[in-house]
Structure formats: C-alpha cells, structure tokens
Write a structure and sequence with these properties.
Order of helices and strands: EEHEEHEEHEEEHEEEH
Number of strands: 12
Bound molecules: iron/sulfur cluster
Distance between the termini: 15 Å
Helix content: 10-25%
Largest sheet: 7 strands, parallel
C-alpha cells in the first residue's frame, strides 16, 4: 500500500478477518500463513472488534480517529469478499460519515465492485481510493477492463506479488490511474520476482506520466540472472535503493 504523504496520521482499520483464495497471487497469502501458526481457519470470515473504529468517539464527543487521517482497510481480508456482503452497507455508512478521512481499499475482487456499492455511490466518493491488485498478465487482462470502467474517483494499480511480466499497454493507464505500485512476494516459499519485470512496469509508468512506487523486492529477487534471498527487514530498503520511485 502507498505510504501516507500529506496526512499526518494513518490508521489501520481491519473490519473483518478471513478470506478465500481467488487467484495465483493468493497462493502464499500471509493471512493464511499467519493463521496456520495459530491453528486458525482463515476461510472463516468474521467481523473484528475493530469494526466500528472510524465512528468511535471520545468522552468529549470527538472522533478517536483524527480528521485528515489516512485509513487503510481490510489488511487480513478483502473488502469485497462475499462473506462480508451482509456487513458492507454498515461499513459504507461509516465511510460516508467520515468524509473528513481518506480511505484506502485494496482488492483482488474488482469483479464484485458493482454489486457491492452503496446507493449513493454515484461516480464514487471523493475520499475513497480503491486499489486493484494484479499479479500477472492474465489477471491484468481479466481485471483491468473492469477497473478502468468502474466509477471510482481515485485508482491505484498494485502489481504485487509480481509473478510475471505485465504489459499495461493498451489500457491507457495515464488517463485514469494515479499511481503504480510494485512488489515481490514475501515468505519462505516466495516465488521469484525478476527485476526486469519491475523495470518494464516502471518504464510504462514513466511513459504514462504516473507516480511509481517499487515498494519491496520480495524474498526471492532475481537481478542480472542472479538470485537473491532477501530477508523481510531489507526488502523495502533494497527496493528503495533501486531509485525507481517517483
Ligand atoms: S484476496 Fe488477499 S487476503 Fe484474500 S486470500 Fe487472496 S491474498 Fe489473502
């Protein structure tokens, strides 16, 4: 996810926990990996204790999440996961109530976007960014036409975990995407992320005049034909050193 730039505060809002694997990028999902260590079944989706965080108030009546904060949603699930359909209207109502915040929603289920919207969505809420994740060309070609056509005010394309080369030409990304974010896969079984794939996405973003963020290398990084195992704490800094961010 993009780091907050203007906002002084950021907040993680984990509305529900649990998910179902939908594509190649989900194979080594960190939610499943984390839950497995605790013997928890990740396929059971449940509301969390954090569900109403954006509208919680202090004794003095002020919201606990300060105005202007950037709120990242659903980091152990997907906002558009089917199981959460009964709860999403309430979530949208909270998002609408807090139009003084900025919300980031990241999804692999852009195909469910239209059936999951509140009645007053219109052309989108000004304070909501919906990020679509793709991991290879097949998912790009499946999801991008839907994403491009979707009424969303702010769109960020996330290529993570990057599992193959992606050609974005033909999607005119400069006219509707605000930023391209790229990252490799983490964990012991991480699949390789080739630097040339990152460079290709960078070149396409530059050509389109877009902001680009090489977020992290992943654990299994291939550069100039050499394979590097990179520990988690170094994956962000190594990516930054590539000097591709703009
Ligand atoms: S959509 Fe995200 S949270 Fe859900 S299984 Fe896939 S990687 Fe995990």
């Amino acid at each position: 996810m993009p780091t907050p730039s203007i906002e002084t505060h950021s907040k993680m809002w984990n509305l529900w926990h649990g998910c179902h694997k939908v594509s190649e990028g989900c194979q080594h999902c960190y939610v499943y990996r984390g839950d497995a260590k605790r013997g928890k079944d990740s396929s059971i989706v449940a509301k969390t204790q954090q569900f109403d965080v954006p509208v919680r108030k202090k004794r003095n009546g002020e919201y606990t999440v300060p105005s202007g904060s950037l709120v990242y949603t659903c980091f152990t699930s997907d906002f558009f996961v089917e199981d959460a359909d009964p709860w999403r209207a309430e979530a949208w109502a909270m998002i609408q109530e807090r139009s003084d915040l900025r919300f980031m929603i990241i999804t692999k289920r852009i195909d469910r976007f239209h059936q999951c919207l509140p009645d007053d969505w219109g052309e989108g809420y000004d304070h909501v960014t919906i990020c679509c994740t793709i991991e290879n060309q097949a998912r790009c070609d499946q999801r991008l036409p839907i994403y491009k056509a979707a009424p969303i005010k702010h769109k960020i394309l996330i290529c993570e975990p990057l599992l193959g080369p992606i050609d974005l030409s033909g999607y005119d990304i400069g006219s509707w995407v605000e930023q391209v974010v790229v990252g490799g896969e983490s964990g012991q079984e991480a699949r390789p992320c080739h630097y040339e794939w990152v460079l290709t996405l960078h070149a396409q973003s530059v050509e389109a005049g877009l902001s680009f963020w090489f977020k992290q290398t992943g654990a299994n990084f291939i550069k100039d034909g050499k394979s590097y195992r990179i520990q988690r704490q170094f994956q962000h800094v190594q990516a930054r050193k590539a000097g591709l961010n703009r």
